[in-house]
Amino acid sequence: MGEYLAWGDIFTGKDPLFCPPVEEIGVVQPIQIFVNYVKKHPDKLEDHLPIVLGWSFQSAYPCTDDYFIKLVN
Fold first, then answer.
1. What is the pLDDT of residues 16-69, one digit of tens each?
2. Distance between CA atoms of 64 and 41, rounded to whole angstroms?
3. Is 5 left (phi over 0), alpha (psi -120 to 50) or beta?
4. pTM, whole model, 2 decimals?
5. Mind spelling out the 3-state secondary structure of the chain?
6. Residues 18, 61: contact at Cβ < 8 Å?
7. Are 62 and 17 in contact (CB under 8 A)?
8. Which residues of 39-71 are buried (b: 16+ CB within 10 A; e: fewer)?
């Protein structure tokens, strides 16, 4: 799902909110990322869940120039 969201942004000309890893991460890791994020930022629980999920993935999977270079090569 994360890969879909990131590529959807790229194809529509938007900068993606986060850049998922190339390797498969399974089901548990995204849950752990979200849980750890809200533990560090409990005030964010007042916001809408999809937005908080995006922020948690953005902190775990930031987009870098190296990420985009690997995609093209």
1. 778 877 788 888 998 999 999 999 999 998 998 888 888 999 999 888 877 666
2. 23
3. alpha
4. 0.69
5. CHHHHHHHHHHCCCCCCCCCCCCCCCCHHHHHHHHHHHHHCHHHHHCCHHHHHHHHHHHHCCCCHHHHHHHHC
6. yes
7. no
8. eeeeeeeeeeeeebbbbbbeebbebeeebeeee
